[in-house]
Amino acid sequence: MTRTLPRPAAPQAPAVPAAGLRATARVVARADHGGTSRLPVLEGGGPFALRRVQSHADQARVCLVGAMSAPLGGDRLRIEATAEAGASLRITAAAATVALPGRTGELATYDVHLTVGDGARLEWLPEPLISAEGSDLRMTTTIDLAPTARLVFREEQILGRSGEHTGALRSRLTIRQAGRVLLDQETAYGPGAPGWDTSAVLGGHRAVGQFLSAGPEFIDKPAEVRLLGGAAGDGAAQGVLAPLAGPAALATVVAPDGLSLRRLLDQAAAG
């Protein structure tokens, strides 16, 4: 008699929760007794892979590497970075972040919280965030500065990949120094945001960004208002550099593409 054995079950792909991914990355820079900044906390997770980069002088450096596609609809992502008193920390990214639609149609959230202690310096210089067609992302960035903290901050947003419409992107940036608000702004682009692509807002441009510097040096010597880029209405990248009501300066730029956006932001950073 011949007995037929049951076939082994086909391997199943791991299930992805319908509610999306939850992940938090944490970085802490701490100055040792010699003044060199170390990284006692470097924790990635989910799409966040954190890599130590060769330090420069006394500064600790970290590169954010994407371990998977994110954020997708339904994802809840968060990055927390702290430069403790006297420390110096620079955070960059290996590639752009692309917001993509998920399976359920839910929105995604991406929260960044930066804390800079007294006498510390934090440089937040990621690559652009790209809002792909069909995506829906809510992004919040909150920065807390001690009275003598220094901050270098760059933010770039590209509305749609080449040849496609933008997704829905809502973004809020809040910067506080010793509990006092230096900047609190909210922007909205894409489906559901009235007037975002009119001449009163982006004027047909599809790239927007800002560069902010903060530090005690702006107390005695505030930044002077300066226009950046080409003339209004010629389609070229353009922006303005202006002082904030506090020890900081902010450059805001709109551009037809990411390359011209970065060039103008670099010009603002160079002073």
From TrEMBL:
Subcellular location: Cytoplasm
InterPro entries: UreD
Key word Secreted present: no
A Pfam family the protein falls into: UreD
Keyword entries, A-Z: Chaperone, Cytoplasm, Nickel insertion
Primary residence: cytoplasm
Function recorded in the entry: Required for maturation of urease via the functional incorporation of the urease nickel metallocenter.
Family: Belongs to the UreD family.
Subunit text: UreD, UreF and UreG form a complex that acts as a GTP-hydrolysis-dependent molecular chaperone, activating the urease apoprotein by helping to assemble the nickel containing metallocenter of UreC. The UreE protein probably delivers the nickel.
Name assigned to this protein: Urease accessory protein UreD
Species, as recorded: Streptomyces yunnanensis
Source lineage: Bacteria, Bacillati, Actinomycetota, Actinomycetes, Kitasatosporales
